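so the lab meeting is tmrw and i was supposed to have these ready like two days ago... anyway. pasting both below. for each one the top line is the aa sequence and the line under it is the structure tokens. i havent really looked at them closely yet so no promises
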Amino acid sequence: MNDVERLLRQAQQWQAEHGPDVDRIRRALPALRTRRTRRRRAGFAALALVAVLLIAAPALLWPRGEQPDHPGGRPHLTPPAPSSVAPTGIDPDRIPLGYAPTWLPGGLHERFRGVTRTATGDLRIQRAWTAHHVGTAGGLPHQAVTVTVQQARNPRDPAESAAQTVEINGVLAAYARDTDRAGATVSWLADARHIVEVHTDISMSRTDLLRIARSMQVDTAYTLPLRLRWAPADRPDVSYELSGDSGTAWNATVVLTNPDRPDARVTITLAPGTVAPRDGDEVVNVGGRPAQLSTSPGPDGKPMLSLVQQQDNSPYLLTISCQAGTPVTPTKDDLIRLAEQTASPDAFSPDWLD
């Protein structure tokens, strides 16, 4: 036996003594296949879980359920009696705010939110940031940065007919300076159904205005300040507003209108003050508590029919007013019913004013 044959034999002996046991491997194969099948199934389950989380992420980030109750000076409205008539055009409690700026110049605070839904289903959200006090009289403040989000079925791109355009995050936008005051507006098609407009009547550089516009991000839903369980007929457009300087000093207003009948306007307000007489011509029963019904000149000089009710243990007054003496003026019973069917949702909180 030469040296090569000796080395080969030694290698074969080492392999026989130290190499894998073929019979043992054959016996272990079924268990190995089972473990691999389990791993594959676990991997598929993990992928399915990731897919579910991705689908559910918007609901988790933008919750639509109830929020904790933060009274913040909110008056307690008389619980509405059950109504068998569902008002046409009355919005649900939760409204998506659409978009909001994530950057604003220093000193500006959000002081106004308004939501309008028309009979055609179009939605318009307005929000305003200002450095000034707005009080509790209500209305969109001046000297403010205002963001308007319009939702429509087929919105028209504002940049198509603009004399001047700018770029907002890769999208062409219309830009215009106000002709009658120191202000400017930039508006663009944010997605297939929403137009976003940023307007300022504050003295502000174009650079800052565009920075506000470019900081826009999708925002959460908003609980409306008042809920109407019933409303007089033929007033299909509904607007909700909340404004104030803090979570304990604010004005919540709902306006019911008919675009074809300006005299059909009905206003429901919950605020510390009222434009209507507190001592009315007649005391009426609203939800088991007294309210004042009167006819008097309104802020515009026209006769106004109003109902005023002081809220329990609160400085806030519920006021319902409309133009008096027209063919579409609500009856006394309509005003009483509307007051009884007005409530503040449990999830409503004015704390964003702080």
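ok protien two:
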Amino acid sequence: MKKTFALVLMVSSLCAWSAPPANFEARVEAVRKAAEVPGMAIAIVENGKVTLARGFGVRKLGSPEKVDGDTIFMTGSTGKAMTTAALATLVDAGKLRWDDRVSDLIPGFQMYDPWVTREMTLRDLLVHRSGLGLGAGDLLVIPRGTLSRAEVVKRLRFIKPATSFRSGYAYDNVLYIVAGHVIDLVSGQPYEDYVREHVFKPAGMLHSTSDEAHRFANANRASPHGRTGGLVRGVGPLKLLDEHDNLAPASTPAGLLAISANDMARWLQIQLAKGKLPEGGRLFREESSAEMWAPQTIEPIGPALPGLEDMTPGFQQYALGWEIRDYGGKKIIWHSGGVFGFVTVVVLIPEKNVGFAITQNSEDGQARFGLMYELLDHYLGLPKKDWPTRITNVRKARIDAAVKAVSEAAAAPVQSKPTLPLEKYAGRYVDAWYGAIAIDSAAQGLRVNFTNTPNMGGRLEHWQYDTFVARFDDPNIEPAYVTFAIGAEGKVERITMKPVSPIADFSFDYQDLLFTPAQ
């Protein structure tokens, strides 16, 4: 009798959480509208079944076309898990091992340190423990870029590490580009083709795209939106952004895949089934699934944010393209993603056999994360909380503090003049890993042009001493302080940079640049 009662309790408990929250779709609409998000797409999978896969809102601000279950959204770094899955198919085929040395896979591969060059493995490429600083090398591909993956790999040797190898965690994109190049070489196909044919097609993800040609050929795609009109990003009215700002083909393995809600539901089913396809067969072996979810690198946990204390995990680690953490006493496997004008989150709760994904075509993240935590609370049986409002309040405080800091800095430069006549600052300068910039002098003043990044140019406004502020023509690009160091001979010896905004995205890694006059 006790066993029967326990079984009834267990079944009742499962039934209580076997569907999305009551009135969830209305809740999504309310949150979306409150956050001024033009469009969203949400997929939910429970016990192997798709219980929700649909769109909300519109594909583009001011246009009538609705988001539906097949509308594709850029999904940012959540694509790192798909790059890992592509590698897993090659591991399963016996063409790779997770601990193969990268130098054996890519001829001429070289990191800054020869010992790291020798020891770096395929696994190391995927777990953010290389010793590179946060976002190091991102300016090679962000906001745009013309370099090939092979050229990005070649320039790695010039990026100085921030810490010793395997000693700590620092998120990077550039090593996922290297992982994509491994796929290029080992498969004999470009990464984009391999993912389309060996991941998307067998997975039944038939609307997803891995390259710009297929993406722009799909009329049912969401357009990017952001707030770029204020002192810092995130302030000002929401506006349509340039779709081409997310196109640096070399960086596709790090996060330039476009995926629909219906396709994301397929991906959630496969992940929860540990590689098994819904109709039978496998995308990758269960052993490879275990490797993907196995924690590798401990992530530091920062202080709890006021108002979000109960969101702070007790542990957080990075696996192969996934983050592992706890919430509500359960293990959560997840990853967030963002590119210009889009943000995404993908969440798996293995113990509950539940997964969900939320994508949106704007950068304001309170809707994405707010709904994420409301769904987590629902499936874990935790008390309801108004997460979108909580996150909105924290986000507003962060942006307000950044606006204040930028305003105060702009109001208090030292009243000074440049050391040299403006034309003396002009010239061509080279950084070892980025390449060249050109400083031009004209009647209107100085301009800077990042020669490896199409349309990344702007005026230099004098700020104080020999420091100028680069105001780029493209509002998507974060302004930067540009400081010229003058040598004893009265000539520019070097140029350093740093972002103006204290909350600039880490991919604007200006601080890692050191330009010297071209010889």
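from a quick look at the 2nd one: Residues 1-17 have pLDDT under 50 and may be disordered. The longest strand covers residues 330-339. will dig more after coffe
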